[in-house]
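Q: I'm writing up a methods section and want to include an example of the input and output format. Could you take the sequence below and give the corresponding predicted structure tokens, formatted cleanly so I can copy it straight into the document?
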Amino acid sequence: MRAVGDGLSATVEQHANPDEVDHVWIRMDVGGDEPLVISVNTFSKRNLFAGFDPRVRVATLRGTWETLPPRGLSVVERFDYAAIETSANVFFEHRERVEIETFIIERCSAARMLEVIGAPYASRRPGLHQVHSRRASCAVTADVVGLDGALRFYFEPPRETEWVLFKFCGQV
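A: Here is the clean output for your methods example:
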């Protein structure tokens, strides 16, 4: 699913046990009755519990825009990091949870608009999750090809974009 919206706000997940915090929630107006909630992983509890590196690796790709995309929701048949990685020099670096939280919150504050690729929640709550590579990882054996997720921020001025891609331990 692809969502494009504005009126962005981002908050760190709240939990009584700080060790359970592993998401940033982004709220955005896509033109519907209520804001869409985007859940972005900032840490992998699955990797931690399985004895692997729980940090998320992040890559950014900068570009420019001439026309902003319209707000709304649409179906994306395929979104694959492999296609991006063959056409651009993409470097993923490990980031600590708090560093990713700050990174996303700062970009949501500065961006005019956000485009998100992700999977719809399985609940009645309108939102997207799985905003990361869906390939097999150290702790997750399911290898989902062509359904990766990402964030794309639109800034003005200047008319720049920034794709943000996320991978976990063991994802190539």
